[in-house]
């Protein structure tokens, strides 16, 4: 089975107020369903109140991420699923719960990890 990253950037979620609370409730319900189905690996979101740190091989670091890259933020879910079609179906469930489209990516298997 492959692991799939299902994610969205913060700017994609355009809901506020009571609808935001409902989206959170619905998203947590889908995560509970994934856990019950045995496909859940992990989920969460980037803490946008903590700035990233760019760390060099020698241990030197600087506040901020790559200056040329778009910011990494939003929510992430990793599920382990038998097929891409299954991953698309779960991504659709998460999209409905979160009220925004989800990006789906497959992790490449690394036998050394």
TrEMBL record:
InterPro entries: Dimeric_a/b-barrel
Domain of life: Bacteria
Name of protein: Transcription initiation protein
Organism annotation: Duganella guangzhouensis
